[in-house]
């Protein structure tokens, strides 16, 4: 079993930055693939970014050049650095872990965190 806990969300003005963290505990020694998703009110959960065990990184087009996903294996922690935030980035952000497969699809992931709210507003 794996537990994921997100933190770092909050209220930020347009153009600002936030760094989200996702701390993993439990069975963390297995090879892992991690992703970030977000869900705005009334919308489906959407893919944001993912990093594979081998280091391959993928982003959805709307965040390329603004968001950076990274991981610290020693701390069992995943990060999402978000810069140049826009109002449309407002959502609950979730981290998730998958054994493999298409990391852009929510159904691929076996474990999810509880989410952290990010609100971009002036």
Helicity, in percent?
under 10%
Number of DSSP E strands: 11
Total count of helical runs of at least 4 residues: 0
SSE order in H/E notation?
EEEEEEEEEEE
Rg (C-alpha, Å) = 13 Å
Q: Which structural class do you get from the secondary structure elements? A: mainly beta
Question: Cα distance, first to last residue?
Answer: 40 Å
Which properties best describe this structure?
mainly beta, seven-stranded mixed β-sheet, 11 strands
Helix-strand blueprint:
Elements: E1 2-7, E2 10-12, E3 18-26, E4 33-39, E5 46-51, E6 57-59, E7 67-72, E8 77-82, E9 91-98, E10 111-112, E11 116-120
Parallel strand pairs: 2-11
Antiparallel strand pairs: 1-3, 3-8, 4-5, 4-9, 5-6, 7-8, 9-10, 9-11
Structural features, described:
The chain is an all-beta fold and 122 residues long. It is built from no helices and eleven strands. Strand 7 (67-72) and strand 8 (77-82) form a beta hairpin. The termini are far apart. The relative contact order is 0.31.
Give a short overview.
The chain is mainly β. It has no helices and eleven strands.
């Amino acid at each position: 079993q794996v537990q994921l806990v997100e933190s770092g969300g909050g209220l930020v003005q347009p153009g600002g930055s936030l760094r989200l963290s996702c701390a993993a505990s439990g069975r963390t020694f297995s090879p892992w693939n991690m992703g970030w998703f977000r869900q705005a009110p009334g919308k489906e959960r959407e893919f944001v970014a993912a990093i594979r065990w081998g280091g391959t990184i993928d982003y959805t087009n709307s965040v390329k050049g603004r968001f950076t996903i990274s991981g610290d294996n020693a701390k069992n922690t995943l990060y999402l650095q978000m810069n140049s935030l826009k109002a449309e980035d407002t959502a609950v952000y979730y981290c998730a872990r998958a054994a493999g497969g298409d990391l852009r699809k929510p159904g691929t992931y076996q474990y999810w965190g509880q989410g952290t709210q990010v609100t971009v507003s002036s």
